[in-house]
Amino acid sequence: MGVPSGELLPSVDPVHRSRWKMKNKHKLFFMAFPFLVVTFIFYYLPISGWIYAFYDFIPGIPLSDTPYVGLKWFKTIVSNPTQTAEVLRVLKNTLAMSSLGLITSIFPVIFAIMLTEIKSGWYRKLVQTLTTIPNFISWILVYALAFSLFSVDNGVITHILVQLGIVDEGYNFLASSSNIWVTMIVWYWWKSLGWGAILYLAAIAGIDQELYEAVEVDGASRFRKIWHITIPGLIPTFFVLLLLSIGNLVNNGMEQYFSFQNAMNKDSIEVLDLYVYNIAFANNFPFATAVSMLKSVVSVILLFAANTLSKMVRDESII
Predict the structure, then answer these.
(1) What span, in angstroms and rounded, lies between the C-alpha atoms of 303 and 204?
(2) What is the pLDDT of residues 200-210, one digit of tens each?
(3) Rounded to whole angstroms, how far apart are CA atoms 48 and 25?
(4) Which of the four, 163, 191, 254, 280, has the lowest number of CB atoms within 10 Å?
(5) DSSP track, 216-246
(6) What gap in Å lies between CA 40 and CA 42, rounded to an integer?
């Protein structure tokens, strides 16, 4: 039985209520404090390394003995035609692979919906476990798996294709730049599909079950329940993750591409993060820092632009 508002509730002293709120705010602050420290150490403290972009720094020589050159390395990106062409090449690779990731970001949503539609509990858990485990496999092991499947001499799939007469001789898929962007996105989703669906499974579990029971009374089919209840319930989660992905459009990591790169596909597989790594270890540390700085600035601009667009279109934002 509900309690009439303002009738049986004990009166609360406003001063006591204010102290209670302050006490809980302090508790929340101390609970969040360790995470603030970790964030500062691992995300903000390394920003101090940006100073190397303004010096002719050579590893092994103290920064105090290194000449200050101002914006020299930033100007090199646009003043040197060869260098500009290199940056544009890796930028094209980065945007192409990130765009494919954005286009296919609907896959975890579809996979999560399909999982929830499996009625057999043990079979659903088996599928979810088998698709989540690859997320914990390193990219080096993923490449080892790809090599065992597609190597020219001993690859399992290559051997089957030759035995069936589909191809005359083994084709070196791993050393080819043809369709390398599609190949990379296929390997990415093989590794992360189950892991990416976990958030959507949690969102589906949070949908009010009375909504499903109500439409079942009206005779709605399984597809109608998905279309009118499940998908609208997943849209807020999908847009939040999409905004974060847009903010990371030029920040797609390097482990996968580092593992699969070789002399034959380097021009098509080298993304910005891998490019920064390669030129840094080619002893051009200041230029690598300058490119990395510009990448971070572009990522922040993209995140705020996507956030503003979301606020204009959906009246919701994450910042």
Answers:
(1) 26
(2) 999 999 998 88
(3) 32
(4) 163
(5) HHTT--HHHHIIIIIHHHHHHHHHHHHHHHH
(6) 6
Which residue from 139, 86, 94 is spatially nearest to 259, judged by alpha carbons?
Answer: 139
The per-residue pLDDT for 3 is 42
Distance of CA 312 to the CA centre of its chain: 24
* pTM exceeds cut of 0.70: yes
Please tell me the total number of residues recorded for the chain in this structure: 319
Q: Give me 21's structure tokens.
A: 């709120």
3-state secondary structure of 68: strand
| H or E segment and range at residue 148 | helix 139-150
Q: Are 319 and 246 within 8 A, CB to CB?
A: no
Residue whose entry in the numeric block shows the structure tokens 């030129």: 279
**Residue in 268, 250, 253, 254 with CA at minimum distance from that of residue 89:** 268
- Helix locations, 165-271, DSSP H: 180-205, 209-217, 222-225, 231-247, 255-260, 266-269
Phi–psi pair at 165, nearest 5 degrees: 80, 10
Residues 152/218, Cβ–Cβ less than 8 Å: no
